[in-house]
Design a protein that fits this description.
Blueprint: H1 12-61, E1 70-71, H2 77-84, E2 105-106, E3 119-120, E4 124-126, H3 128-131, E5 132-133, E6 155-159, E7 203-207, E8 212-215, H4 217-220
Parallel strand pairs: 1-5
Antiparallel strand pairs: 2-3, 4-6, 6-7, 7-8
């Protein structure tokens, strides 16, 4: 007896059903994949600030407790000091993977940075509390890390720096910033720039005691804003 075999073609209804199922799966998976990518970038950012923070702490441990100080018009100097001193070996940690700004720094041309031939985007600020000097006199005005009160609540390194002339309006040096010509609004919680909250509403912060976490600026960091520090004035040429 002969049997006749014939191929089964998809009907229009079956084809539409398959397309609908694929669409549903895509609607479920695409946001999940996007969320995983964002989480990975946030984890990388947190790792970056932790590494920079630990580099600053190690630098201070080997330099009489002083951070990589600079004059206000030489704000790239701390970053070049960490690199040339081999405290930072990978310049990629200076850049947040979610930082979409175009500005990059040419260390070879940056004021006071020396001859470090590297062009890099800097996404993170180092606290002026530990590295700032007076722009006019050149006198050091900083707090040694070992003398820092409540180090677990005072930011040392933080995401995110944005390009801004901040007017030096904050008399108390509690900003997490690299120096006078770039800054952030950590000291102005009511006017936070959206760029400061690019990681699910929070920012990556390494604190003075070396621990790092993602925080909500409006609430978590308020504890340090009214602190007053006894600065250690001195000649920056004296070591």
């Amino acid at each position: 007896m002969n049997t006749t075999s014939r191929s089964h073609a998809f009907t229009l209804i079956e084809l539409l059903t398959v397309i609908a199922i694929i669409g549903i799966l895509a609607a479920i998976l695409i946001p999940t994949i996007g969320s995983v990518r964002k989480s990975a970038k946030q984890a990388q950012c947190l790792s970056n600030v932790r590494q920079i923070g630990l580099a600053v702490i190690l630098y201070a441990a080997e330099n009489k407790g002083e951070g990589p100080t600079c004059k206000q018009d030489e704000w790239t100097v701390p970053y070049s000091k960490l690199a040339t001193g081999n405290y930072v070996s990978n310049f990629d940690i200076y850049t947040c993977p979610e930082d979409t700004r175009e500005q990059k720094i040419d260390f070879n041309r940056a004021y006071g940075a020396g001859s470090l031939s590297t062009i890099v985007k800097i996404s993170y600020g180092i606290s002026e509390v530990v590295l700032n000097t007076d722009a006019k006199s050149g006198m050091l005005s900083y707090v040694k890390l070992a003398d820092m009160p409540s180090p677990s609540i005072v930011p040392l390194v933080a995401d995110s720096v944005y390009w801004l002339i901040n007017g030096f309006s904050d008399a108390v040096r509690t900003r997490v910033t690299n120096a006078g010509w770039t800054g952030d609004k950590w000291s102005q919680p009511t006017t936070l720039d959206p760029d400061l909250k690019r990681h699910k509403g929070g920012s990556s912060v390494c604190f003075m005691d070396g621990h790092a976490r993602v925080v909500d600026q409006e609430t978590t960091l308020n504890g340090h804003k009214n602190m007053r520090f006894n600065y250690s004035p001195g000649d920056p040429n004296e070591k």
